[in-house]
Amino acid sequence: MFCEKAVELIRELHRLSDGQLPAFNEDGLRQVLQEMKVLYEQNQSDVNEAKGEGRADLIPSIKLRHSCLLRNQRCLAAYLYDRLLRIRALRWEYGSVLPANVRFHMCAEELEWFSQYKKSLATFMRSLGGDEGLDITQDMKPPK
Amino acid sequence: ANTETYLKAVALKHMPPNLQSVDMLKAVPE
Amino acid sequence: SQAYLPVPPGVGMEENFFSLDDILLSHERLSCRTECAFPRLGFLEKSGDTRDIAEGTKMELPLWLAKGLYERKRRVVSVEVPKVYREGWRTVFSADPTVVDLQKMGPYYYGLGSQMLHFDSPENPDVAQSLLQTFIGRFRRTMDSSQNAYNEDTSVLVERLDCLERALFRSGQSGLNGFQSWEKGRAS
Question: Coil, strand, or helix at residue C60?
Fold first, then answer.
């Protein structure tokens, strides 16, 4: 069945329910994108045949492949998004400088996303509490 | 916007033409 | 990490697009029957020795694909209601919902049951009722045990719960632990 690799990526994250960030699975991503390419090309070919030669009987297969494409898209987007949620949590747990072993698990674009996130958060915090701003990442627990 | 840019850069732009966007408002629930 | 807040599963018949739980739920397999032919996809079928999937083929499809192909007005694929939602099991649940091992019968008993309502069936109103009554019948025990088990091994308490119930149990435990921590002056 199609989309098995895609769901494997999801499982990889689901197993780590405590928010740990595993290494970025570049190879897994590439395999899913490759499967999408193949499905799309097969569908293009069938669509041309359906239109050109009146092969309406090909439509169910075209729809099936399209469902698989949507599934792969969803799995990849969810995989990447969930990783961003874990990375975002790191800002609140570790502060703005991430430990090297964590950075090592992030791809270049994730590091860029994190950098942008830090900037957005800093801008927001500066806008609070008058001239000095307010560091809301401190004092996460109430005083004794 | 940051997240959309990221998703496009890493994955969406490598997908078939009709699948290169995700409706972020629908995808991220309140 | 307390700051990691994954996208939660959808409520009822809805799925959340980015929810890992919903994606795994929709990976569950259902017994289906094709109501039309699927040319050139014969390799997907178990025997896989024909070029096409013929009309009338019985095969297991993941929920996401069954949902993607299913059409109310046209016969493309028909989906069999899993045993646990049919009359026999519904009778068991109505007799005593607390005795059933929902991890074994599920593990997504409520989630999958709710998703089955996307497929037209005369049993749907009864399935929906059964899901609701089963939840109501079991909820109290899950809540009570989550509030009473402090600092102990809870594996026996959760082993017969389905995924939704386990999430509720964990939520209850989180509240209990937070309260205990505060009482002991450890929350500052």
Answer: strand
Long-range contacts of C39-43 (CB under 8 A, 24+ apart): C39/A57, C39/A58, C39/A60, C39/A61, C40/A42, C40/A46, C40/A58, C40/A61, C41/A61, C41/A64
Query: What are the CA-CA distances from residue C79 to residues A79, A107, C124 (Å)?
Result: 29, 41, 13
pTM above 0.90, yes or no: yes
Element (H, E) at A1: none
Whether B7 and chain C come into contact, CB under 8 Å, resolves to: no
For the question of an ipTM over 0.90, the answer is yes
Question: CA C182 to CA C176: how far, in whole Å?
Answer: 10
Q: What is the pLDDT of residues A64-81, one digit of tens each?
A: 999 999 999 999 999 999
Separation in Å, CA of C19 to nearest CA in chain B: 9
| C142 vs C139: CA distance, rounded Å | 5
pLDDT in tens, C137-174: 999 999 999 999 999 999 999 999 999 999 999 999 99
How close is the nearest chain B Cα to the Cα of C7, in Å? 8
C10–B28: do the CB atoms touch at under 8 Å?
no
